[in-house]
Amino acid sequence: MTEKTMKKHRLLTTMSLFVIIVLTYLSAAITQFNIIEGIATLPEALRWILSNLMITQEPLEKLPTILASLLETIFMSIAATTIAAVISIFLALFGSNTTKVNGPLSVLARFIASISRNIPVVAWALILLISFGQNSITGLLALFVGTLGFLTRAFIESIDEAGQSSVEGLTATGETYFHIVYKAVIPQCLPQIISWILFMIETNIRNATLIGILTGTGIGFTFDLYYKSLNYNAVALVTLCIVITVIIIELFSNYIRKVIQ
């Protein structure tokens, strides 16, 4: 790297840092956030947490109910992710530059992915809540729509990054479109596809907690119920169960990713 290039790099870094500082200051001024006051309240907040969010014998008696709600959330997340993954594979094949059938279908697939991905899952839950009411179907559909857009985009990138040599070789031999996809595209992208699916299952378990508060289902509803009744000991137990579940699933997912890569 030449001296001129290094100076240019340092200048860009300094300018970027300056812009970040200015934006941070403006954001704090607009929202009237005082970082000194925020830091000063931390000790009091920690004292409140330690004195209220304690797991005692009483909430432990509610553990079977909490675990049942948590299991419902896990199954809902897995179901939404699995269904979305199947549909996303087809949309990704149509939307990818490597495997697209024609231009309009590719644009349509990318448009569907963009719409479902750029609208937050919470917004989808509120939209669907009007039509379907507070039930598990609403939560599943909200997770499904949000997952569909994310996975479609991720699968498109995975397919586009796949090697073109095998695709071109099978095309030259006169293989059909489905044979090319089955023999050349899917085998190369399968590890990435599985990795993205596992990542979305982890993400959806976290999202399902918030969705459950809105739709009245799963562990989110249980958390909201105890929180509104000021049963903070039970809230602490619910939170602990969620954290442990997410960590276990993340460790399991990381192990699978290492095996398939």
Write the layout of secondary structure elements.
Blueprint: H1 3-31, H2 35-40, H3 42-52, H4 57-60, H5 63-95, H6 103-118, H7 121-132, H8 136-161, H9 165-172, H10 177-215, H11 218-228, H12 232-260
- And the CATH topology of the largest domain? MetI-like fold
Write down the overall geometry.
Answer: globular
Termini separation (Å)?
34 Å
Mean pLDDT: 83
**Beta strand count:** 0
Beta-strand content: under 5%
- Radius of gyration (CA) equals 24 Å
Description:
- This protein is mainly α and 261 residues long.
- It has two domains: 3-52; 60-260, MetI-like fold (Orthogonal Bundle).
- 86% of the residues lie in helices and 0% in strands.
- It has twelve helices and no strands.
- It has helices spanning 3-31, 35-40, 42-52, 57-60, 63-95, 103-118, 121-132, 136-161, 165-172, 177-215, 218-228, 232-260.
- The chain starts with a helix and ends with a helix.
- The mean pLDDT is 83.
Index terms:
single chain; about 260 residues; mainly alpha; MetI-like fold; 2 domains
What would you say about this model in short?
The chain is mostly helical. Helices cover about 85% and strands about 0% of the residues.
